[in-house]
Design brief:
The protein has 420 residues and is mostly beta strands. The chain is built from 2 helices and 32 strands. The strands form 3 sheets. It has a 27-stranded mixed sheet that branches. A 3-stranded mixed sheet has the order 1-3-2, with no helix packed on it. Strands 31-32 form a two-stranded antiparallel sheet.
């Protein structure tokens, strides 16, 4: 098979990817480019369809592959079977160029594209490079795109390590995202995003910008009122530790014109403490107050089966459900209405306005009868997992305590958690 077949009896040569474009051809051209153009930039421009062509000579900063859609091959933008799918497997990028969106630089940009998989790869912004005049330095920039999957990727060193902007059907899974000097992950004005089984850690304010420096930030994009609120976001089975600000920060901006963030599910995560003191003089919270998780003006959220070092704050007319969580600090409510609160949470204490305690359990100390995998690394998987109530073998999340609360007939000393 050839990329461009020979002419046949008066027919013009064609380059139809449905017949002649094979992965081996792409690999051969890519390898040739990589060997001859070290430290150069590759731009890949894609559009839905199954017709493809290659330029004969690959040059730095020129488009590597352009796919053009054929009307006859696309019945619907939701018909993914009619799309080609580009897979990046085992790539290593350590550098940055001017991004197509915003004033900053990016290491890896996906824009206006559908159906991309990036896996088993390392995407690093140059270490110790701070570009104050370029505020949006990003390692992985994904915007105005759909059906994008990042799996088993390692992302490092940018102001924002991963940015999902105005995109849909996005998956980040089994990945390590760390050492940003702004937010590790931003989910901005995006829909249908799944964050599953990742290690998101060590966001540090290395340059004194005074930002939140969060593990995960979820809110709307600028300019004001021009982009929708994010919605339908799932954050599950992750470990979020050593982030300076909030580990998870969900906040509705501009609700007067674009409404509220809705349908946020945060389940089965281990969420560490933070180093930022928020509202240190507030009565009822304790002093200082560290808030690993904050919801502000969020509707229909679910926060279940999480293990949290510190305080969970639910603010500003947020409405949602909290069940089966272990919270070492306070569960706080401020200016909330119609919040669905279920019992079964084991917490140090509750606080709500006015300054009265709702249900204080006191400064408790839980001593587990099982050994943890690696406490120093915040790995609280039991070595010999036993059900809190039934003593049967389980493999579920450490933080789930289904029998504590209204059904609390078990001894706390058998729980899978200990708080000094």
């Amino acid at each position: 098979k050839k990329i461009c077949p020979e002419s046949r009896q008066g027919r013009e040569p064609v380059n139809d990817s449905r017949i002649y474009l094979i992965p081996r051809s792409l690999l051969r051209l890519g390898s040739s480019f990589a060997n001859s153009m070290t430290n150069a930039t590759i731009n890949i421009s894609l559009a839905p369809g199954d017709y493809g062509s290659f330029p004969n000579n690959l040059q730095s900063r020129e488009y590597w592959t352009t796919y053009k859609g054929q009307d006859s091959s696309i019945s619907s933008f939701r018909d993914n079977h009619k799309y080609m799918r580009l897979i990046f497997d085992g790539i290593h990028f350590n550098g940055s160029v001017r991004a197509h969106r915003g004033p900053g630089n990016a290491t890896f940009t996906i824009m206006n594209v559908s159906n991309i998989i990036v896996k088993n790869s390392e995407l690093f912004f140059p270490e110790n490079i701070h570009l104050p005049e370029m505020n949006d330095t990003t390692a992985v920039l994904i915007s105005f795109s759909s059906n994008i999957t990042l799996t088993n990727v390692t992302v490092r060193n940018a102001r924002t390590n991963i940015y999902f902007g105005s995109s849909s059907n996005i998956i980040l899974e089994k990945s390590d995202v760390g050492y940003s000097w702004g937010d590790n992950l931003r989910i901005i004005s995006s829909d249908n995003v799944v964050i599953d089984g990742n290690n998101i850690h060590d966001a540090k304010d290395r340059y004194g910008t005074g930002e939140h420096i969060d593990g995960i930030t979820i809110n709307a994009d600028l300019p004001e009122c021009n982009f929708p609120q994010p919605k339908n976001i799932i954050v599950k089975n992750n470990k979020l530790i050593n982030n300076t600000g909030q580990n998870i920060f969900v906040w509705s901006n501009y609700i007067y014109c674009i409404g509220y963030i809705q349908n946020i599910s945060i389940t089965n995560n281990t969420i560490g403490n933070t180093t930022t003191i928020d509202n240190p003089n507030a009565q009822g919270y304790g002093n200082p107050l560290f808030m690993p998780v904050q919801f502000g003006s969020v509707k229909n959220f679910i926060f279940n089966q999480n293990t949290v070092y510190g305080t969970v704050a639910v603010r500003l007319e947020s409405e949602g459900q909290l069940m089966n969580n272990l919270i070492s600090g306070y569960l706080t409510y401020e200016n909330t209405t119609n919040i669905i609160y279920e019992d079964y949470n084991l917490v140090k204490g509750f606080y709500a306005q006015p300054n009265t305690n709702r249900s204080v359990l006191g400064n408790f100390s839980l001593q587990s009868e099982v050994q943890f995998a690696n406490v120093a690394a915040h790995d609280y998987r039991p070595v010999s997992p036993l059900s809190v109530c039934t003593m049967s073998s389980i493999s579920g999340h450490v933080g789930a305590l289904p029998c504590v609360g209204q059904q609390g007939n078990c001894e706390i000393k058998k729980a899978y958690w200990k708080i000094a």
